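ARCHIVE CARD
SHELF: 3
SLOT: left
DATA:
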Amino acid sequence: MTVDSPPLHVSPWTPRVTTALAVLAAAAFVYVTAEIMPVGALPAIARDLRVSEALVGTLLASYALGRGFEVGGRFRYSTGMPRTPVTGSFLGLDGYSEPTFGAHNSTRIPAFYQLDVRGEKTFVMQRMKLSVFVDVQNVTNRKSPEEIIYSQDYKQKSYIIGLPTLAVVGARLEF
């Protein structure tokens, strides 16, 4: 480089920096929307979904025990989504039973709760981090009603039940 030549322009936006910033932005978005934002926005979320605040409530907790160990849990309670009940049925022109509906949203799916727990151990190595975790969903094995279903002639009602206890073991490698 001579005295008369223009200075070299070095761009700070290398592919590595761009990728790191994109990952950081995505992580910040997920963290804020999952952990922080809903606490203050619960009334607005409930209003937009046209449900009660109790319906959208969830309690999350996590604690770092030290030495790379972390435990956490999630407790969900729902008063049940409002539904319009089927009060009877009649035979349609096509020969199939058709439902007769009651008052709009005058019943609810039964209330339910679910408890999930998670344990994680992180190993820090020179240039990478390995996390091994166990995630157990529905620890209480509660048969939570998710939706109402009816028999073909609408004379019998039952519920679609949520998943039983489900254990997931996994690992995450960061470098």
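SLOT: right
DATA:
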Amino acid sequence: MGCRRGWRSECAVRSRTGGWRMVGWMFDRKITKSHLIEGQIDPSLSLAQAGDLMPARHWQAGIVIPCKGDQCLITDCLQSLEDFRLAGNQIVVVDGDGSSELANFVQSRGMIYLHALDSRRGYAVSSGVSWLLQNGDIDTILICHADMRLTGGTRAAMVNAMPSNARSQWGWMGHRIDDRRWRYRLVEWGNYLRVAALRLPYGDQLMFVGVDLLRQIGGWPFQPTMEDMELSLRLRQISSPLHVHAPVLIGNRHWCGGIIKTTLRNWRTAWRYAANRRRPPERVTCTITKA
């Protein structure tokens, strides 16, 4: 019998019937009686695959997706989160438009739908994060934009990368731009260097943060825009971001006005924000509709 050490380690033994049986989960590098579980596992599965099927309490994620009523755009995003949904992770869609069609669509898939009365993205994310903190037993919150598509194996990559103190960890995944032209590879490379040098991931790189660490900095930044930069500025004072190499796929619409022009505008916006970031935030309310 072999055991893999880490946040999500498991041990398997051969049962008398010839199948594999999962007998424990390691959280603190040892198995205690309270961690022991039993269940039949398909012997053709690897230990990592078998672990995803077990009902034990392990790493739990909550995903927040801000949007503005675009069901066509968000359909592919939700489909790419199927692994998270099947694992029982809570997915919260925060709609700034209050679309009844989108509400029905989200709720029919067993997800949470919120209507934010202020459609600006920062407030929408804050509404979703607040709901998860109040209603979900989770370790990590992921912020996924409506135009993102996660690749297969993203959840498994996160589970394997998470340390035992997942609730006190934050990080990013990176992105791939859905355009084959070489200039977009330069954009991806430049964004990676920014995080490596400045420890400043942005929201389009799929950021995640542990709930204990989020409470330590006073909660999610409550502001209409630039909430991702504000979050990184606060968190990097505590620790460096963890890079989970599972880049999400995003569209090239952000650079439609030209890569150089868009990059210079982004730099100018970031500099202006850094110079005025101490202004008091506004207030916003949301209406909660639970599936």
